[in-house]
Automatic annotation (TrEMBL):
Keyword vocabulary terms for this entry: Membrane, Transmembrane, Transmembrane helix
Region (Disordered): 30-101, 138-159
Transmembrane segments: 110-134
Biased segments, Low complexity type: 148-157
Taxonomic lineage of the native organism: Bacteria, Bacillati, Actinomycetota, Actinomycetes, Micromonosporales
Protein name according to UniProt: Uncharacterized protein
Length: 308
């Protein structure tokens, strides 16, 4: 304890005043031992400096402790001139090296690819409209109905019919297979008709109505080494105007109604989407009661069920 700077007295009462001249010197505090680490051997540092005393020189940082702190530690505003430094140890943080929450589990790694795949499969099913809308192939590699025995083409179309007379009537799709490449799917996506092929009705005035009633298509693409069975069920109707020329069917004014249901039971996936028709031209060969469609991705056949 140092003498009073005013009168030199050594006594301090319980309220912190000099017992001789009543100068305020601060409430005396008993020193407390450090909680951990090397004991502090110097004089206790008072949290309340003498009145008018300006702090100078290096200060001792407050220690982070779990019990009572050093005498200079207070919970409210400090006395004038109180000196404090940065904590001796870094504060506890959440999400850092300690106390971090565990990483959440990954989603099923097959789910995201399958969702993307289902969209492609739906597009493939859409391509079935009007007996498979094939992309226009090179005429050199396409069958020419006009050169097939018993077949007909636009050149032989009677004046009273706007389309190839061979097409007029009702047809039932017998087989259908389509394959398309897709990133992340080994061997691409391939679907085939498994039940209830669509029914097509062509009229002489160039109208086409195609009906899907519980038509089922299926495939089993390999995604990341695992086969994922997929089923597409179509219930829809397509109405359009058509023209035929040089072994191709051209569609216009296409109107659709209905939907497609794509399911993958092995991963619990099921999605219903509106049916949308593809109006791209289609290559065909009509011969009597047989109708064939072929191309680089599609193979399909249909049988005539009625000529009217």
């Amino acid at each position: 304890m140092q003498p009073c700077p005013t009168c030199g007295g050594m006594g301090i009462d319980m309220n912190g005043y000099c017992t001789q001249c009543r100068t305020y010197r601060g409430v005396p505090q008993a020193p407390q031992p450090p909680v951990s680490g090397t004991p502090y051997s110097g004089d206790p540092y008072s949290g309340a400096p003498y009145a008018g005393y300006q702090a100078s020189g290096p200060s001792f940082p407050d220690q982070q402790v779990s019990g009572p702190g050093y005498p200079g530690q207070t919970s409210g505003p400090g006395y004038p001139g109180q000196v404090s430094g940065p904590p001796a140890f870094p504060p506890t943080t959440y999400g850092g090296q300690y106390g971090a929450s565990p990483t959440p589990p990954r989603k099923n790694r097959f789910m995201v690819p399958l969702i993307a795949l289902s969209g492609v499969v739906v597009v493939l099913v859409i391509a079935i409209v009007a007996v498979v809308a094939l992309r226009k192939d090179d005429p050199k590699t396409s069958a020419d109905p006009g050169k097939s025995a018993g077949s007909t083409s636009g050149a032989s179309t009677p004046a009273e019919s706007k389309i190839d007379k061979c097409l007029v009537g009702t047809w039932q799709t017998s087989t259908f297979t389509q394959t398309a490449a897709m990133a992340g799917v080994e061997g691409g996506v391939s679907i085939s008709l498994t039940k209830n092929g669509s029914t097509l009705k062509f009229t002489p005035d160039g109208k086409l109505t195609e009906t899907y009633q519980d038509s089922v298509y299926s495939g089993s693409p390999t995604i990341q080494g695992q086969k994922v069975p997929i089923t597409i069920t179509v219930n829809a109707t397509v109405n359009s105007d058509i023209q035929t020329a040089s072994g191709s069917i051209v569609y216009s004014n296409v109107k659709t109604s209905g939907n497609t249901l794509t399911t993958a039971p092995s991963i619990g996936y099921s999605e219903t989407e509106p049916f949308e028709a593809d109006d791209n031209p289609a290559k065909y060969t009509c011969n009597g009661d047989s109708l064939t469609f072929s191309g680089t991705q599609i193979q399909a056949t249909a049988k005539r069920t009625s000529s009217g």
